[in-house]
Amino acid sequence: MIFSLLSHRFLLVVSAALFPLLLTAQTPLANRVKAMARHLPAGAEVVSKYTDNHRHCLYYTLYNRLFRYDVVTNKSVGVEFSSSSYARLLRTFLSPDGNCIFVVVRKTGDEVSNSYNMEQLWRYDSRSRKSSNMGSGFSIVCCRDSIIIKKVVRSLNPSRPFSHRQWIAKDHYYDFDGHMLDAKDEYRLK
User: Fold this and answer.
1) E-assigned strand segments in the chain
2) Distance between CA 110 and CA 12 in Å, rounded?
């Protein structure tokens, strides 16, 4: 009886000591993703890490480009999310579920009919590896439950020189699936 009580206590003490180690133990794929995140080139920023069997990769930005590092093949590949060239990558953010990467880029000057709407938002699905253009505007903001694209829609005085025009803007609200939720009333830019 005493032996069984001591062995039971010993088992409880050992399991309590090992429990924190079990929480930090990861799969080999997760360990490789973590290691790669620590050894990225200087200037690289991690966008997201995926350790599931389908994706097993790390997305990061470097030199105004988005890259995908596959830990199974040990290869880093540039992600082509935009169908046209862009001047630079401004920022990235993730959808709340983590499956989609949103990339905000600054468009090149020759592609823009309105020089105020220079930011462009792309949605990249990390599962299907497909991207879609969500829109462009002069400012793109990520909120907790939506994305706001602030867009110049028209000029109040188009006959004036470009630098002296007054502009009307509108805020367009999108969900994280890329669907437009609402377009607010127009307002004058100052």
Assistant:
1) 45-50, 57-62, 65-70, 75-78, 86-94, 100-107, 119-125, 130-137, 139-142, 147-155, 167-174, 180-183, 187-188
2) 70
Q: How many CB atoms lie within 10 A of CB 190?
A: 5
Among 28-32, 37-41, 44-48, 169-173, which stretch is predicted with the lowest mean pLDDT? Answer: 28-32
Give residue limits of the domains in the chain: 25-79, 85-190
Helix, strand, coil: what percent of the chain each, to 5?
20, 45, 35
Per-residue pLDDT tens over the stretch 81-140? 988 888 899 999 999 999 999 999 998 865 445 578 899 999 999 999 999 999 999 999
pTM of the model as a whole: 0.80
Number of alpha carbons in the 13 Å side-chain half-sphere of residue 1: 0
